[in-house]
Amino acid sequence: MSSNNVASFNEARRVAIFGGTHGNEMSGVTLVNLWMMNSREEIQRKGVETQPFITNPKAVEKCSRYVDTDLNRAFTTENLSAPNGKDLPYEVQRAQEINRLFGPKGSSEAYDVIFDLHNTTSNMGCTLILESSKDHFNLQMMNYIKKAIAPDSCPVLLNEDPGLKYATARSVAKHSVGLEVGPQPQGVLRSNIFEAMRIILKHALDFIELFNEGVEFPPCTVDVFKVSERMDYPRDANGNIIAMVHPNLQDCDWEPLTPGDPMFQTFDGKTIPYEGAGAVYPTFINEAAYYEKQQAFVTTRRETLAANAIRKV
Amino acid sequence: MATRGSQRRCGTWISEDLGGARAYDNKEDIPIQFDWKQQQGWGNGRLRELRGWDPDCFRGHRETWEFQGWDLDCFRGNGRLRELRGWDPDCFRCYGEPGELRGSDCFRGHGELWEFQGLDPDCFRGNGGHGGQAEACSGEDEMDHLGFKPLSRVAVCGGTHGNEMSGVYLLKELQVSQPERVRSFSLSTLLVNPRAVDACRRYTEKDMNRCFTDALLSAPTTATTPYEVTRAQEVNGQLGPKGSEKAVDLICDLHNTTANMGLCIITHVSDWLGLHLFKYLQEKITSAPVRLILLKSPFSEVYSLESVGKHGFTLEVGPQPQGVLRADIYNLMREGVNRALEWVESFNSGTVFEGGEVEAYIDVDTKDYPRDPKTQELTAAIHPQLQDNDFCLLKPGDPAFVSLSGETICYEGEALYPFFVNEGAYYEQNTAFKLAQRETLLLPAVSVKKPQ
User: Fold this and answer.
1) What is the pLDDT of residue B67?
2) Do A187 and B425 make contact, defined as CB atoms within 8 angstroms?
3) Disulfide check for B282: which of A249, A264, B45, B290 has CB 3.0–4.6 Å away?
4) CB under 8 Å to B355, separation ≥6 — which residues?
């Protein structure tokens, strides 16, 4: 850090773009495969080595989210330091390999930036996922992207609560950025979703190039949605789901949910309302992969984060 | 004496009889001059192009691949005879659905014959789908009103594909609500592929909804037989056996699609009861579009679950991602099932369902994605102008795909109606979308046959 509240960072020389962390999220798989097979001009920037990479090839081949265990939850300290061997679940082996190639996590040799490309069945638009409110480099990048795509919007989801965040593949890098674009069914490639993801990445890489050239980005603020609580489906004594996301809540990611608003609908048509203390902003509403994680949606609260000016060292 | 033709799936007919009867694959094969021999004529593919008939024995056929053979005396043909205009004064031979098969000497029929079961040496009899029985013909007017036996056993099936969630949950709801209802029929529910449901995958080893062909249902099973093949045989034992008198009267198989298709009734066999049930649903359900899709296969090759029942249909609702349960889609499917059961109740109680027209989408073609010839990976996605526009007429020159580098690829073919546009499960079946012709079908009135 330097004086005058300008945060200094090394040039971001090594950047990775991960696709197929979940093998059935097709935009990232398609984009990364495209760049691995064909010319990479689209993702090259001066002074930056951009590496596209398929993180979970077996899951991609099966077109399933994972083979043994969710790769995007596998980068725990315990997993990364476990003695490696063939008995380990496939994704834990992959996590160790990815940590070797792009990390080690927490060290100075780790990649500067990793973008991890995801799709969701939720109506989240183009969401950027932030894992730390104090990463000024990332905050400035997200501010840059938001301005570049205006009047279109890209919400920023902040997930830093230790009880709620998880050990993602991208967490191996010094600066981790999640791109979550939806709605798109698993196993399906929608061209509008694909193009939207591509455009966000383009702006992100432009930002890195400008930063590396020495541009100083002045202080800014970034509106974020901070993850507050996970809401499960109502279940019976045997753990079976007894209600669905209510039609009034379905597809209403990022819109306020106030106490009394319909939240779930039982199979015979009764409404279960939201009963919280105040208005919240739900997201990841009805994500297919989260049924097994006991999550119908998450609630978030709006916050404004301040980012210092940044420039390269 | 006559050469028996061989049945071909498609392609040019290769044989002809000594008398000169010929069958052709398509218009281009028709010789310049028809050669009307003394007692013979022939058809030329589509019945609607048939120009005449032999006074002794009508011959017409639709697709040559459905043509089974013929002899000099008696017409044998199969396929659709939709626009039949007249009949042979001695013995009209034409046939449609089992319920229309009338008499030993003279019968009338119309519509489709999907399955040719046998023949009588004097006069051709086709008998449509299984379970059809000839009835005495008592007059011309009978064709306007058909009687069917009551539907006393109905089965609603879900989880044929384990990640199509509406059916899985609707079955549970039916099991809870069913005992409260008194009905004129027995209602059973069946979770078809429990292993796939547990794994929340379409299937574990083989697509369950391709396992109900006659061949697979009777195949001996070993330790290496895919789970779904064995399970299909079990299901056939419970709901069938397919083709026998013991089969349930009606199967409703619940499915979801990622395509924007609203509510569709899909059936392989055009069956007057099924068409009337569709007509009823279309009249009663106003919250979403309700459409009829007819798939064509020769009956012996029909592979899907609903063919196990005497009557059957698939209830397909979308769009919904795999593994997701949307309340709006669930509610629509629930309404569809409730209305279908309502119709059965009404039918059994003696209601006469008046004849009328219905619009059907007849499956005729399939288009795959553009792919890299070496890797078979997709090189284009469905174009935004086609995405979510199922059942909007697709004309030559309309955008169909957009390449990964942004170029539009246009559709080149007949103007047809696309459906199953961007269905997630069809990537591995080399299908980006299917195409249908739209036709108007004329339904006779139907009602339950009173016991004699």
Assistant:
1) 32
2) yes
3) B290
4) B144, B145, B442, B443, B444, B445
Catalytic residue numbers of A read 180
Query: A225-302, which class in CATH?
Result: mainly beta
> Angle A26-37/A191-212 helices, nearest 10 degrees?
60
Q: Among all residues of chain B, which has the CA nearest to that of A37? A: B375
Beta-carbon separation of B321 and A246 below 8 A: no
Residues in chain B: 452
A39 band by pLDDT with thresholds 50, 70 and 90: low
- ipTM value: 0.94
Q: How many CB atoms lie within 10 A of CB B140?
A: 8
Mean pLDDT of B83-109: 32
List chain A residues with CB under 8 Å of B326. Answer: 244-245, 250, 286
Looking at per-residue pLDDT, the higher value among B113 and B358 belongs to: B358
Query: Measured between beta carbons, which residues in chain A are less than 8 angstroms from residue B201?
Result: 64
| Span B356-380, pLDDT tens digits | 999 999 999 999 999 999 989 999 9
The fold for domain A2-220+306-312 equals: Aminopeptidase (3.40.630)
Which residues of chain A are at the B interface, by a Cβ-Cβ cutoff of 8 Å?
30, 33-34, 37, 63-64, 121, 183-192, 194, 240-241, 244-247, 250, 265, 267-269, 286, 288-289, 291-292
Tokens standing for residue A30: 């398609």
- Indicate yes or no: pTM above 0.90: no
Mean pLDDT over B84-106 rounds to 32
Round to whole Å and give the CA distance between A127 and B413. 39
